[in-house]
Amino acid sequence: MWIGQKDTGGGGRPSGSSFLDGQLLVAMPGMRDERFARAVIYMCAHSPEGAMGIIVNQPASHVSFRDLLVQLDVVPEEERIHLPRVAGKVAVLKGGPVETGRGFVLHSSDFFIQDSTLPIDSGICLTATLDILKAIAGGGGPHSAVLALGYAGWAPGQLENEIQQNGWLNCPADASLVFGADAAGKYDRALRKIGIDPGMLSTEAGHA
Predict the structure, then answer these.
(1) pTM above threshold 0.85
(2) DSSP class of residue 181?
(3) pLDDT of 63-82, one tens digit each?
């Protein structure tokens, strides 16, 4: 199946303030992995077992949401032009380098599917079944949504190590940074939300 239910590894927000689920992870300018250069990642899960997030500022330029609805047989080609306006506003993102053939929908909490939707934090949920695509195509989906192809994943302790090496910053998420259409501006806006002037960050930080 192209889009499937995510294994949440037990679900629920882990206890302790050091976990970052529901936060934004923001790459430092010195990020050595080009896949995450200037990345803003919404963290869906973070626990001692590892972490999982969706990159929210890297558009998938080769495909549109309407195209995917047809490719997945959610709607027939002849109905493509009759889709509700909201379907045209759903951005398709490169969510990360893991399982890039799989889809994950981040969306506002006004839409919920029992046993499929994972509430994360701050009114944002994750649903990874075809049912949400059908709902959007029918005009009954969430008010705000983005569809991510793939995700970013970390093994136990890996993300913590990268943060200690000054690879990432974090800040509270907000709807404009997750769902906003200005993907190119999200990185600088996220840094300013933290209180950092993007031009003042050193690319050599943490390399002593």
Answers:
(1) yes
(2) S
(3) 999 999 999 999 999 888 88
